[in-house]
């Protein structure tokens, strides 16, 4: 009964993650490209706002799990977070890396075209697999490695820029900015793989709820994000305030970012980081389809259909082997 519930939660959480990631990509791209009067919102501020919102949401969920008792919630938070300092400090590592990663992605999106960014960022699937083998001692059979290669090839083909698009982008982006964007994506891929597997190891080795872990993670994330905002955008914040350039779209991005951390935590709890990578890759295809049918800024080609087939084949190949692996663990 419990195994069937876990299996159901695994695929439900993966589906929610696909929808959340797709919405975040579309709204974030729109928020960073829309022309508005006044200054554009600060990426560092959006990262801090998302962490605060995540903490508030998780606190409400802990309050619900405590039978809506204020004193029981306060006691639980004190016991698990304040009194258990050593366990709490473990979350400082992934929190700092996640904060760095979130800011790096904004840097990448500011210096690379969307296609190059999305293709390169899929390298996090490979880094996650490598860290999974090294840190969790989990072995991957040859089918799973082939599925990873198929997935990367499929996503690359889907997002491969056309000659005309590449030429136009080269006129706009300098070699220096492209190099900076590429380095930012590569660093984000490595940090994403390490932090995700590290967080997975902590989650699956504790009896604490996902919500408590995210409060701990969000607390450190808020501190690191606030320090980063002061260091890099302190003058702008002093001049125009932390929420300069915020609009309804900006708040949607913040909400999706905060919710994304919770969805990912649930996915890690019931599935694993590699499946999370597959869900993210599928969301890229959905984003492309929505761009074509709704935004009308994409023309599908034979390369797109070839890449879609490769991604679907890779997903089925990994899922088939994943079932047997899961049953052997349980």
Terminal CA distance reads: 13 Å
The total strand number stands at 0
Morphology: globular
Secondary structure class reads: mainly alpha
Roughly what is the average pLDDT, rounded to an integer?
A: 78
- Helical run tally: 14
Task: State the assembly state of the protein chains.
Answer: single chain
Beta-strand content bin: under 5%
Descriptive key words:
330 residues; mainly alpha; 14 helices; disordered C terminus
What this model shows, in words?
This protein is an all-alpha fold. Helix content is 84%, strand content 0%. The protein is globular. The two termini are 13 Å apart.
Can you give me a brief rundown of this structure?
This protein is mostly helical and 330 residues long.
Strands, helices and their partners?
Elements: H1 2-33, H2 43-65, H3 70-83, H4 85-89, H5 92-111, H6 114-121, H7 123-136, H8 142-159, H9 163-172, H10 175-203, H11 210-240, H12 248-270, H13 273-295, H14 302-329
